[in-house]
Amino acid sequence: MADRDRLFVLTDEQWAALEPLIEACRPRGKTQHHDLRRTIEAILWRHENGAKWRSIPAELGPWWMAAQTFNRWGHLGVWERLLEAAQAGGIALGMAFLDGSNIRAHQKAAGAARKGGPQAERDEREALGRSRGGFGTKACVVAEAGGHAVSFALAPGQAHELPIAPGLLGCLPDVPGWVVGDRGLASHSFRQHIWDLGARPAIPAKRNEDPVACPPWVYHNRNRVERLWARLKEWRAVATRYEKTARAFLGVLCMAATMDWLKVAKD
């Protein structure tokens, strides 16, 4: 296929930044990809557009190759390692932001393999559930001071983000100066947990609670994590969950967050 017929999803500059990270994280098999860049571009195209695998343009190679690569790498934890590699040396911990978002699940997201147990257990395992917003997933993120994702956690749509928050803080490479969250994280025990870590909480009290210290000059920065979700949800496969398994959807989130980090590095 001539270059003039190629559908380029990544610029040469973007691929130059992404390729060494992929080479460091991807598994080594007996059979190597004929055109790794084309396969990665097919995966990115599919998730940016929220399309079916079979809808991947022919210029980006066989659709099944992209689907197999994405799923295999997801099982091996490659997408999580890729996000970690993109962050290397760039995490600023003057502040850390915690936030959750309800992701509406497409009807095709249901139907993962049962692997034993009733339907309720399968939904819990695959982070799917029904909340006021409908059938979906609760996606929680911890972001660094610049407003870029460090790690994600998934739970069924009806879950509260407070039980997830301590685990996300444990994903940070060091103790942040401030931990910033909205009223959904208002809890005396969670604030105490933050103090015990050596950080300071900036979480406003609920309206029926006594006031607590929450410096406005710190809390006003929470819009950084809200802008992060806005950027991530430009990917249609993040704004709506199409993946049947929690592992696959986590891979989509990590991929989108990796590209967000690389955009910052280029800027």
From TrEMBL:
Occurrences of domain Transposase DDE (ranges): 179-263
Record-annotated Insertion element IS402-like domain positions: 10-82
Spans annotated as Disordered: 109-131
Amino acid composition bias (Basic and acidic residues), ranges on this chain: 120-129
Recorded superkingdom: Bacteria
Database matches in PANTHER family: BLR1914 PROTEIN, PHP DOMAIN PROTEIN
Protein name in the entry: IS5 family transposase
Native organism: Roseicella aquatilis
